[in-house]
Amino acid sequence: MTDLHQVLADLTAETEVLDGLLSGLDEAGWKTPTPAPGWTIHHQIAHLSHIFDMAGLSAGDPEAFTAMTARLSEDFKANIEAAMKPYLAQGPGELLATWRGKVAASVANLAAVPPDQTVPWLVRPLPPAILACAGIMETLGHGQDVFDALGVRREWTDRIVHLVGFAVLVQDFGYEARGLNPPTAPFRYELTLPSGTPWEFGPEDAENRISGPASDFCLLVLRRRHRDDLALTATGAAANLHLDVAQAYRGPAGEGRKPGQFAAAAKS
Fold first, then answer.
1. How far apart (Å, rounded) are the C-alpha atoms in residues 241 and 236?
2. Same domain? 113 vs 198
3. How far is the C-alpha of 193 from the C-alpha of 215, rounded, in Å?
4. Pair (28, 98) in one structural domain
5. How many other CB atoms are found less than 10 A from the CB of residue 71?
6. In a domain, 216, yes or no
7. Nearest alpha carbon to residue 191 among 174, 172, 207, 168
8. How many domains are there within the chain?
9. Is the same domain home to 105 and 39?
10. Contact 195/233 with Cβ under 8 angstroms?
11. What gap in Å lies between CA 118 and CA 45, rounded to an integer?
12. Residue-wise pLDDT tens digits, 173-191
């Protein structure tokens, strides 16, 4: 079982890494376009503020969270735009303070939930540790857009192990987003964490296997890099398809990234 306090500590560390990038930005910097079409850095942090606000509300006031989600429409994009609107109205300094406050509140509220209990979420209740892993996924994904917008190379750490495990847990998301049937055959994952530590999961004799750097696997499931630009190997037809459809979040897949889109940054 994922240790709640460890994943919360790692979540806090990842938000601090992103905070380090944001703290030095002037107002023009916050308007920098990111690889997500139509989204600036300001949009990315507005979205993250909303995500952490929901997580904090879910753990701290489940009834209010349930009432809030009951008011959501069936229009995924409209829900996101409506949720971001009040945050986009804030100036950079105010939004940065807001985001920091939402992160701190969500971490504190999740830490207070007994590990054997669940909290409400958008589709089904989740253990607090799993929701914290989802927070790492959101932070790394939208944070990567900020890194890419500023042309800064990310230094990966073994904290990504939480995203790796989460992505394997939600393996079906990419198929569901495209109306495809998820694979029934088991997968074998043989990934290497940034420290060189191996991370393995699944039957050793599985016909479908995915191997390579864990950081590349994270970029794949976050859809922040095209598979052609990653050092991942797929063995088996189902595993090969997975490299095309994998995503660690629910909802529309989005445009993803084009092959070679970050080739210049990779050489810097």
1. 9
2. no
3. 7
4. yes
5. 8
6. yes
7. 168
8. 2
9. yes
10. no
11. 27
12. 999 999 999 999 999 999 9
Tell me: do 230 and 165 sit in the same domain: yes
Which amino acid is located at 129 in the chain? A
Lowest mean pLDDT among 80-89, 146-155, 255-264: 255-264
Can you state the percent helix, strand and coil of the chain, rounding each to 5?
55, 10, 35
Same domain as 176, residue 102: no
Question: What proportion of the chain, given as a percentage, has pLDDT over 90?
Answer: 92
Does 262 reside within a domain? Answer: no
Place of tokens 């990653």: 230
Q: What is the CATH number of the domain that holds 166?
A: 3.30.1050
* Domain interval for residue 228: 160-250
Return the amino acid letter for 136: I
Res 268 pLDDT > 50: no
How long a stretch of residues is the chain?
Answer: 268
Model-level pTM greater than 0.85? yes
Same domain, 63 and 18: yes
93: Cα within 13 Å, side-chain hemisphere = 1
